[in-house]
Amino acid sequence: MLRQSCVICNSNILNDIYTLENYPITPSSNNLDYSTDEFQDCTFLSCNMCGCVQLKMLINPIKLYLNSHNSTNISELWREHHTLFANFIIKHNKLPELIEVGGNSGILYNLLRSSINSYTILDISNTENRPSEVQFIQGNCENFNFTGYNSVVLSHTFEHLYEPRLFIQNLHSAKVDSIFISIPNMEEMCLSKNISILHNEHTYYVGDYEIKYLFSQFNYYCNSSYEYKTHSRFYHFIYVSDIVPFTLTPSFLYRDKIIDIFSKYPLLIKNININTPCYICPAGHYGQKIYYYLQKYNKHIKGFLDNDPLKQNKRVYGTPFYIYPPKILETYSGIKVYIILYAGPYINEIKKQINLIHSNIEYISL
To answer: What is the 3-state secondary structure (H, E, C) of 263-296?
Structure first.
């Protein structure tokens, strides 16, 4: 699917700004042969009207989300996020029922179940870790009819949408009154030069201004918001019939920062020289992109390390290498282990765990 209009302002004046050539179409791990993997150019566009950076070619969501690949309840940072977001919902929710979009892991459901009388999960994929007792609908939220649902929740899902304006319009048409959203803090990701700020799943830049602007176009007012560290932002939008929509204020600041991240990272990688056996940590988006830049060192890469049991003993898509639990490092008693580690805000948390497993780790810095 070719994106032909801007997700934020609906302009059709879009220009190519950067391409990752021959990039894996999904981060989902699997046990299929490497020869079955698909690749295509991952090209990013910039809107000339508002400056939003967004993905050009959109992957078929059935392929993109075929396998679960992000069990966020393993990380301490994520667990705190989920608890605080659940508390944020409980504090502001006045309705006895809700539908969660993209929540088949059941993490939020388990935190909210005692506070919500009727809970429904809508997700494009149906995975084995979904709680069996909750009402589940398999479908795409972008063309789903929300009529009859008054409260909607999205936790790190909104930035995955292909047509967020259409999604919000559907909520408006269905007379949805209350919407709770958590999104990554993309301003902070820009400032910290996070290499995975945008990819095949995070298909467009959406910051604090952009999300408030989008919702205001369809009579939704930000009733409350909360900033969780530098990790995420929580929002509660409510329908207000007489709201004055935001006026579009173009900004090219974050476009320029994203272009800088995209263009400088390959140059920095050129200075890396790997001449000893090593692991890449973690798997998922970060590990996949690290491998993309360092695949010429194939003969030295032993595999990936990741805490997620849903990924372990599977192959990282787009690579010939498998994923192992960090405890595999225990088999290297008395031997120095080399690890290529890049995980954005999770680096210190991962290092702390790995250093407890093995006392002689040398991290290859990127």
So the answer is: HHHHHHHCCCCCCCCEEEECCHHHHHHHHHHHHH
Q: Do domains 76-253 and 275-364 have the same CATH topology?
A: yes
Helix (H, G, I), strand (E, B) or coil at 90: helix
Q: Residue 273 has what pLDDT?
A: 87
pTM (2 decimals)?
Answer: 0.94
pLDDT tens digit string along 79-104? Answer: 999 999 999 999 999 888 999 999 88
Q: What's the pLDDT tens digit per position in 281-307? A: 999 999 999 999 999 999 999 999 999
Can you give the pLDDT at residue 269? 81
Residue 15 forms beta bridges with which residues? Answer: 46
Domain regions of the chain by residue span: 76-253, 275-364
Of 112, 187, 129, 121, whose CA–CA distance to 157 is shortest? 121
Reduced to 3 states, what is the DSSP secondary structure of residue 109?
helix
- CA distance linking residue 160 with residue 190, whole number of Å: 18
Q: Where are the alpha helices (DSSP H) in the chain?
A: 61-64, 76-92, 107-112, 164-173, 186-191, 208-216, 253-269, 284-294, 347-357
- Which phi and psi (to 5°) does residue 227 adopt? -105, 115
Position 68 scores a pLDDT of 59
Give the three-state DSSP class for 84. helix
Q: Is the dihedral of CA 233, 220, 236, 204 positive or negative?
A: negative
Instruction: Pick left, alpha or beta for residue 153 (phi over 0 → left; psi -120 to 50 → alpha; otherwise beta).
Output: beta
pLDDT < 70 regions, the chain: 68-72, 128
CATH architecture of 76-253: 3-Layer(aba) Sandwich (3.40)
Please name the residue that has the structure tokens 């990127």. 366
Q: 319-326 long-range CB contacts below 8 Å, 24 or more apart?
A: 319/24, 319/34, 319/288, 319/291, 319/295, 320/34, 321/280, 321/291, 323/29, 323/283, 324/279, 326/281, 326/353, 326/354, 326/357
Beta bridge partners of 181: 154, 235
- Reduce the DSSP state of residue 227 to 3 states and report it: strand
CATH topology of domain 275-364: Rossmann fold (3.40.50)
